[in-house]
Amino acid sequence: MPPWPPRIMIPQLSPSQTQNYGAINEGQSMSFPVRRTSLSERSEDEDLDLEDYDSSLGVSHDLIAISYPRLLFNYAILPIFSIFILALFAAIPYIWAEPSSETPITSILRDVALGLVTWIASYTLRQPSFVLATCFGKYVTSYTTSLSTLLSVLVQESLRWFSIALLGVSLQAAPDASAPDWVPIQSPRDPAFQRIWWFAMGWACVGEIYGITQTYLQLALYKDLLNDNGDPDEEEEGIGSDERGSPSSNNEHRTVQSDGLRFVSSALKAASPPDRPHDPASSRGAVAPSSFGTLSRVDSPMSSYVDQEIAHLLLERTRSDLEEVWGAPPPNIPVFIAGLQRLDSLLLTFGLTLILSSRYLVALARNSKPSFPDASPGHCSCHFRNNAHILHARRSLHRVEFDVDGGTSDDGCAYRFVRGAARRSWTVLWWVGKLGCPNV
Question: Where is this region: Disordered (predicted)?
Fold first, then answer.
């Protein structure tokens, strides 16, 4: 074994050579001993480096032995389950509906469309909420991230509340004759319940479509890791035998193992430009304008290889983020867990919509305080009016008017209620902003 550190042998120069200091003649070179590493040692070092890289990405979970088409077939039950649950929820308003009352299909479609548009608006405002909470990306911390989540939820529920006000519904049930004041009664037979339910159906439908689409996109990130035959061990053993059998295959494939997770990344044979004999004329011509096309053709394999490596790194980073959020790779999550998540999303949507609408309708009725000379269901009516001069002035104001047998009427009770809710929401947001970004 050569000594270490290596001894550099300085050749003796003749007087003629000392005059041409810095010139290198053909056939003369400086020789010094170099430590050579075997192929096995280099492969072990590369494996250690790649394992450290995988551990830095957080890839530490075993994937299930299943093929990608089989996985998609198993998850096909997810949209079927969601459609079945939505069909059951759509039949609920007809259970308590009066036999004589029929809701027009145009009214149902209008309420469903309003819920769909409201969900899209709330989803679109998530990114601006994150930008504002993090001060345009300058302070991205756990506190600002939590603040952005809180702000997004407040915006979403505010839009839900305002959309319920845009429906123009009110409690139509008759009050109790023994009650001294008018007491609003909430009943599933009320037409307001049906309209709010269809609004929640539109919100839930678009939410389910988005959730199922995201589930399939997350599964597609692991398509290259899932084997077609569902037995990854056999394929990896075959690849390992090929690599041990032929040295050239070591340059084409590279197997990486990190805590049970294995993936094979293929390297291009044309990763580097082909070697060409040194020709001074060609070197001079390489910088000429006419040879720009040749240079681009030579650099194209390297650029494609770099693009593939960057895409691979981004894919690994996305997988690592998903596993950090879910605690396991998405293919390892059972299908019934995903179905429970979709059911939980539906129940949360309908529950929040009914709770907010109940609070809104009760507060709306109490602020109006109409008198009841004759308590009958047909005397109480509520409708929204849009004034033309306010629309031209870019101030849209929805007014509520209660008329009972020519009795008292109270205009603008909905406006006062929404204005008070907006003022309280702004106060809460201001205090949360001061706590999250005290230096701003």
Answer: 230-256, 270-292
pLDDT in tens, 170-228: 776 554 444 445 555 666 777 788 889 999 999 999 999 999 999 999 999 888 888 65
H or E, element range at 261: strand 261-266
Q: Residues 302, 399: one domain?
A: no
Phi and psi (nearest 5°) for 68? Answer: -65, -45
First to last CA, the chain: 65
DSSP 90: H
Q: Which residues of 28-57 are buried (b: 16+ CB within 10 A; e: fewer)?
A: eeeeeeeeeeeeeeeeeeeeeebeeebeee
d(CA 119, CA 391): 25
In angstroms, the CA 380 to CA 374 distance is: 10
pLDDT tens by residue, 130-185: 888 888 888 888 888 889 999 999 999 999 999 988 888 777 655 444 444 555 56
3-class SS of residue 286: helix
Whether 106 and 203 map to the same domain: the answer is: yes
Q: What is the CA radius of gyration of the chain?
A: 35
Note down the domain range covering 374.
68-222+337-436
- Tell me if 89 sits within 8 A of 346, measured CB to CB: yes
Q: CA–CA separation, 257 vs 191, rounded Å?
A: 62
- Judge if pTM exceeds 0.85: no
